[in-house]
Amino acid sequence: MNLIEELTWRGMIHDIMPGTEEQLAKEITSGYVGFDPTADSLHIGNLVPVMLLKFLQLSGNKPIALVGGATGMIGDPSGKSAERQLLSLDDINHNLNCQKKQLEQFLDFDCGDNSAEIVNNYDWFKDINLLDFIRDTGKHITVSYMMSKDSVKSRLESGMSFTEFTYQLIQGYDFLHLYENKNCKIQMGGSDQWGNIVTGTELIRRKARGEAFALTAPLIKKADGTKFGKSEGGNIWLDAEKTSPYKFYQYWLNSSDEDVEKFIKIFTLFDEATINKLISDHKEAPHERKLQRALAEDVTTRVHSKEDYENAVKASEILFKKGQEAVDGLKSLSANLIQDIFEGVPQASFTKADLANGIDIVSALAEKGGFLKSNGEARRELKQNSISVNKAKVTDTKVLTEEDLIGGKYILLQKGKKNNFLVTVE
């Protein structure tokens, strides 16, 4: 694989320093991406630099993932309108350990000369004192050079602390250190990192009399103007505890036709012919959403597991099934999946003591549950055969008991096809 050709057709190159492609053709080249430990999980926005490393490795080169134990103590000002809240060392170390485990899912750490490696910049910064750093490194980069960077210029009016101002020099030193100690010659990242990255190449040129290269990917934007990687609940995280596999799967499945052609090139490992065929098939029958399904399957399986993907599909399909198959399928779901699927629908809480005595369906729908306005409305809807309990049609003789619990905790009430009401049993 020619890395630059691969990234080009995938739409993953925003800026590239002259000579980068020639360097990659010359030898097995080490390249790195830095990850900011501001949270104890990566999110799907971080998948872009992760994929840069993955494609670097697939092209026969060596990927290095740098987790910023040192830079995380400062905070990267790039793309930020205000200074970040500084984290404690304990929080940073916790976040780093969590992120390391996630990065290990995507890269091959046992494949010979181009095996992946994870490094922590705190390991070399902890032994450098301030006087040595400003004398031996700071003198090679001028203030005017640092002031010319967009990450600095955009903050001149609102203000930037000296702490943040030094960030690009710290990141530049990371590149210098990896160049000198691991023969790393390429740094990659998002387009907002260009200024920090080229500070590193400049430091290598001036201090080490060497040559290094830079490559950035465009920042991902959605066609409707909403921010990529965000949902109503916030970031879409890679950690299943923060974003369930079901919600993760749904995020990709709900991609618009305008976005999915871009996403499938960036976030999957499908080759160009496969993707072109998927796009062609999708355009012939867009209602089948073949492109979205292929994207959601690939990314969910790689980030979580094949089992998580299959459970997410099963949960999605159950909502549209009817009859006994729907009833049995719903009862097979875990409490966590039920909670994810019906998040945001109206809810009421009953107790197990209530169920032990049995709750008649009219009371459950109206005065006790509050799904419907009155007992009269509940009886009318039941008479019209529009009420379901756990996807099964019921009459006014139905009594809710513990046997109706899904995952030992939930009962789903429905009026018609679209009106859902979730009973939580504590």
List keywords for this structure.
single chain, 426 residues, alpha/beta, six-stranded mixed β-sheet, five-stranded mixed β-sheet, 45% helix
Structural overview:
This protein is an alpha/beta fold and 426 residues long. The chain has 21 helices and 15 strands. The strands form 4 sheets. A 6-stranded mixed β-sheet has the order 1-6-5-2-3-4, sandwiched between helices. The longest helix is centred in the middle third of the chain and has 16 residues. The termini are far apart. The model has no long low-confidence stretch (mean pLDDT 90).
Please count the beta strands (DSSP E, at least 2 residues each). 15
- The structure class reads alpha/beta
Count, helices: 21
**Uncertain ranges:** none
Overall, the morphology is elongated
Largest sheet data: 6 strands, mixed
Beta-strand percentage range: 5-15%
Helix content: 40-55%
Over the alpha carbons, how many angstroms does the gyration radius reach? 27 Å
